[in-house]
Amino acid sequence: MLIHNCRQTADKMFDVLNPFTNEVVDVVPSLSPMQINDALESSYCNKNRLSGYQRSTILSKAAKLLEEQKCNVAKLITSESGLCIKHAMYEIDRAINCLHFSVKQAECIDDIDVTKQFVSNASSQSPELTVISEPWDLAVGITPFNHPLNMVVHKVAPAIAAGTSIVIKPSEKTPLTAIKFGEILIESGLPENMLNIVTGVPAKAIVDQLVTYPGLDLVSFTGSVDIGKYIAETMANNDNQLKKYMPELGGNANFVVMEDCDLDLAANIALGAYANSGQRCTAIRRILLQDSVAEQFIDKFVELVSNVKYGDPMDPSVDMGTVISQDQAILIEKRVNQAVAEGASILLGNIRDGALLSPTVVDRVCSTSSLVAKETFGPVASIMRIKDLDEAIQLIRQSPFRLAGAIATTDINIANQLHNAISVGQFSLNGPPGYRTEEAPFGGFGDSGNGEKEGVVMMTRAMRRLRTFYNHKT
Q1: Could you give the maximum distance between any two Cα atoms of the chain, in Å?
Q2: Is 233 a catalytic residue?
Q3: CA separation for the pair 140, 150 (Å, rounded)
Q4: Confidence of residue 112 (pLDDT cuts 50, 70, 90)
Q5: What is the per-residue pLDDT for 471?
Q6: H or E element: which one contains 163?
Q7: Does residue 438 carry a catalytic annotation?
Q8: Complete DSSP assignment for 320-349
Q9: Of 11, 271, 357, 459, whose CB count within 10 A is highest?
Q10: For position 115, what pLDDT does the model report?
Q11: Model's pTM, two decimal places?
Q12: What are the structural domains of the chain?
């Protein structure tokens, strides 16, 4: 919790637990409603209008400091999230990349202000048109546990690039990394109240206060479908003015493996099911496998998965750490067991020790099983057999999630047919569904989102408002 560029104290505290050891990593203040209002009010009233050069300098220095402190920050990520140190280091690399892209946006976003001659179709007169791009007064970012640094950076850095003040509420499970990043920004020269970070439990009460604040312009939320819809309902039912809402919600990414594909490549792509302990909205959850090559693919895939080393997340040789909590691991274990009761078979894994769950492969999962019908947020790859592409399309369309998808095939026509039929936010041919670049829009439809797009370029633009001025010269 950082307000006025200072750490705050509170009467109530809450524990942040290490998912692997279940030990307390740190205690964090649970801020009072008065303190949260102070964070909102001070950010809303912030009038530090930095130049694009000043904003880019702050972001560039933050990237440099994050690189210098990479090892310590990675250990912090691992200690509070259970992600293995390899994945934590990758998380930092992505965050640094995001900061560098945001530097470029800060340098050019002010140039969107345009004055030009505008000729109306209805008249020969040519009024002068000025398009003004300016920061919002206040944005709120609400971030999840699965990317303790990256999701925070992907909201804060574009806000700074745009010149918009932002209040961040990180997950109560992983607030320490967010606080550390806030301190890095302060060290980089970020003015007071351009960023405030609030923490506390219960999370719902804090979210309610944040999203109903009268001066709020924009809410960017990444998290579960249920909470995302709750926020939308809360904002809609509030008597204050309408606010821009950017939800990035759940996913149930399908990876279609066709008989003409390179099976070795496909098996390696499917390993993405276990990146970040399977806790990614774009992680492969469902492998739709054509019957004619099923056994060949499974042999290759299971062999690869069996070599994924899981265990102590701090061990640099480990490839996969824990999920966020023992409760989450138990839920995943139950869904796998239920799928087996419905006719599926476990090819590998489903071994649990506390929050540590082994990389798991389940074959012949029925489409109605909760394992694949819901977003199972963990290291499980579920195989569903298909006869042809039409069956794959039918299965994918049954899901309410439309965030990401991928196909392995040598036929571009088949890839285009699938891409056009399933209408997801991002799609890969012979690559992982989670692949993304910061130049590109990111976001989904249906239960995955409302079509608002993230990615540094799109998010920076979203953090500004446009006004037009027509000068009808006389």
Answers
A1: 80
A2: no
A3: 16
A4: low
A5: 87
A6: none
A7: no
A8: B---S-HHHHHHHHHHHHHHHHTT-EEEE-
A9: 459
A10: 52
A11: 0.95
A12: 2-249+449-471 (3.40.605.10), 253-436 (3.40.309.10)
